[in-house]
Amino acid sequence: MGIVRTLIGDVESKDLGFTYSHEHIVCTPPYWHNKGENDLLLDSPSKSLKEVKDFKKVGGKTIVDATAIDYGRDVESVSNISKETGVHIIGTAGFNKSFLWASKIPEHLQKILPAFQTYNHWIEAATINELSDFVISEVEEGLEGTKFKAGQVKFGTGYNSITPLEEKTIRAVARAHKEIKAPIHSHTEVGTMALEQIDILRSEGINLEYVSFGHMDRNPDPYYHEQIAKTGAFLSFDGIGKIKYAPESTRISLILELVKKGYENQILISGDTARKSYFKHYAYGPGFTFIKNKWVPRFEEEATNAGFDGEKLIEKFFIKNPANCFSFKV
Fold it and tell me: Which CATH number describes the domain made up of 3-325?
């Protein structure tokens, strides 16, 4: 195992406990704010605090907050939530996907990025190594000029495509990882382009065992999942509870298929809960307790019925695998 960097300090990976591997806690994405998409604005720290308290009550210990700089982070509020609840929260350096980058850089970031009007302008003007240095600074010094340090680095790409600027950020994040050994997380839009991302990462000399690929359940293709798993990477099934995309039976079937093929040590589970309508204290949604209280018992039952040790698999997906995935590699 190793050391995991949380917003309020480094901890040993064995102390992570039950972990959600991809969530959002407090954020106001400029892109969605400008479009008036209120559901996508998690803009009440007090309500988000209640959600994290609920998570703790059902045995939750750690949350990975996958909110990058271009998605409207509120670093101070999330750090305060971690302090008040005692729940470990892992912050994220790096970038999301390119269509978000047309947004104007918020006023509070002008002191950090004074020469640029939009994220797109910044990413286009900077060199790969300059972007990499910025990512490194957010892990080693603090997110957005604060003292709260990121514990993973992230890049993202759009649906069925990788733009030149997205490739630029992939290479920047890869080079940051090689310098500081932070775990890497990939946003794949609707689960696409992971294999193409892998080609770029390999060209930068990255060991794929240090990478987790998000939104795998949005592309319910067992063959595709196996090609990713063969690289040694982690696969994140982070759409739990989002029935509009697929029933839970589909997700469970995809996960068990990977288990059958021997990839149980590479699976992560979470909810990517990024809308008010998903949260109990914002809009009466399932909230942070759904996975632990509802999905876990169902998975254990279906896995056991299929001839597996469901309880052991849950321990791997929520405790052992996150402890391995989110450790800094030396």
Answer: 3.20.20.140
